[in-house]
Amino acid sequence: MTRTQASRTSQVQSPPRSATAERSVGRPIDRVDGKAKTTGAARFSAEFPYPDIAHAALVYATIARGRITGIDTADASAITGVLAVITHLNAPAMKPPPAMSVMDLSTLATGTSVNYLNTDEVHWNGQPVAVVVAETLDAALRAAALVRVTYRELPATVDFTGEEKNAVPQKNSPIQSGGARKGDAEAALAAAPFSVDLRFTTPPHHHNAIEPHSTTAAWDGDRLTVHEGTQNIAWTRKQLARRFDVPVEGVRVISPYVGGAFGGKSMVWAGTILTVLAARVTGRPVRMMLTREGVYRTVGGRTPSTQRVALGADADGKLTALIHTSVTQTGRVGGGPEQVTSQSRHLYDAANILLQQNLVELDALSNTVMRAPGESIGTFALETAVDELAYKLDLDPIELRMRNEPSRNPIDGKRFAHRMLREAYALGAEKFGWSGRTPQPGSMRDGRWLVGMGVASAYHPSWQFSANVTVRLAVDGTVVVRCGFHEMGMGGATAQAQIAADALGVPFDAVRVEYGDSTLPTGPGAGGSGQTASVAASLLTACEKLKRSVLALARRSSESPLRGRRLNGLEARDGGLWAGGTGPGETYVAILARAGVPSVDARVGSETRVGEVAGQVRFMSKLLLDRRRWVKAACGAQFCEVRVDPDTGEVRVSRWLGAFDVGTVINAKTVGSQLRGGIVMGIGMALSEETLVDPRNGRIMNPGLAEYHVPVHADIPPIDIHCLDEPDPTMPLGLVGVGEVSITGTAAAIANAIHHATGKRVRDLPITLDKLL
Ligand code: MOS
């Protein structure tokens, strides 16, 4: 973790800065959960002790499509300690997965449409066909290996490459755009004096969080407690209540720590449901830890893609045509279109634009959201093509981008709420030393290494979700923030404590944030890089309400110096409310003590059923209206230096700098870590990650870290992060979200640097050494 800096080119605008009190927002405060996680005190979902716990393991189908004709469980049942072998022949009935509905957003968390163990049908190679429950994990795993299943196979479509020609155009929906056009891009391309027309491919990717998916489930009558590392406790709770036909109020989902998720823990996958089923069947608390293979077989990954990017430009490098089309895959039993062309609506001011996403449906597990779905692979194609065009024009690739930097959203003329890509490139180029690069490929060397420098734009839309929050201020001056959000390691609780501390004018240490439990007010999912801004919006409102209530208490007393004061003339600082810089005021402690109340509460959001639906509808309509007006996003400039061995094709990423516009930086340390983590993921995507699917039967052939290669520390250079730290005036506290933007552009920056080093263009990920020889 070297060279950590977040340059601060401006001050945060809001809430108002006090002359005396130290603000928490902006400080690089250590994560509040850091100590527990690094000392082993943090309990993950497979670590909650129950005295009589049983262990479960899955059996996976070995065909892509067909029907089960027989299951022999005799050998498995004979293993000492086996309590149950549950198959479709003896499993109790469950409710089928719900259809997606905008009236209940928890339906979006349905991983697949399969009613596991309630059917003899097999829909993908790896679908769970049995769950074994035993006294020990070892017995469960051994017995699972002894379950013998026979099938009647049906014809299956599993080969993405072979199916590509059958892709159908994705239709536009209110929340997703399948295509868009402006002018006649094909004609403009044909007429352009300079052009590129390129095809790119990216392979499937799978989730590899440090903590594999695991569930601990315990029933008490119709009440259910589930410990689950999840990105959405509210959706998990509702899904489970529905599938097991019990009241949602009786289901509690607890998720204090999540050992990484990256999209993989957004949906409710088979392991979770079957652990709850196993606990139901055996009457015991049951724990299931998916093996690494289990994650690949039962948790969706990223779709493969083929993409066409064609660009046409005039002699000045002004884009006249931008075409970006894609083919991606969904499962026949679920998954969604990946927004591969999303960034191409926003990045370049081309006169003519044509975007179209196309889909093929395979007999495969549903794809799912994964590490900046859409833009991470979409920017690989777009940003490599821009670099190729720059070489055709003999223009610096940054200069080409700046000549096409739009003032309004290119596809539809909407306004940008905030956009500082120019500033990001200027800052990055200076700090990285871009001017020291000689453009000619192969022109830079360090001993026997070929040295290359590459650049690419990062882009990720910013999102907001509804969040219910309560804040309690106690007479001892402490504050408790409660919201059922998620801590996957990004520092969410720390950020909210900083925000609450400043909003109320109390020290950071006075605030405690409770999260990760469905008994708390319903929080947003951790996804789309939108959790922090979403919670912050409600938290700020709750803090305003709280201050109002405290002031009302104060005004009741003739002794209070705040008598007759209005909140908008007061400043929250030094643990209380004060008029002006040196004016009269008093501490919260004094106000509450005099009034004789132990605490004051404020709440945002209703938890009644009607209140919740009404709140969701209100929130969604507001959001859609807002997005009709504004385009909102985080963006950045990625700078990469590589060294390539000319004889072996070995690529080492030797230097990295990212300059980002992520709005207000709440915490330079956690924001820096988030952005660094994304770049590490992007390096994996560029150089090593690839799920290999057997085209004959749809079986994933490398389901584990031994053969699916993610970067290790030795693969990662020092990563220098700079943030512009300018608030987005239309977002709560100026936040635009930091989780995913840094994954985008990374693979293109590497591919472009490799071209600069070697003169070779690789348009098929991952860029393994065989492609460079
Ligand atoms: Mo994410 S892929 O929004 O967890």
Automatic annotation (TrEMBL):
Residues 1-17 have a biased composition (Polar residues). Keywords: Molybdenum, Oxidoreductase. The keyword Oxidoreductase applies. Residues 39-155 form the Aldehyde oxidase/xanthine dehydrogenase a/b hammerhead domain. Its EC number is 1.17.1.4. Pfam families: Ald_Xan_dh_C (PF01315), MoCoBD_1 (PF02738), MoCoBD_2 (PF20256). It comes from Streptosporangium lutulentum. This is Xanthine dehydrogenase YagR molybdenum-binding subunit.
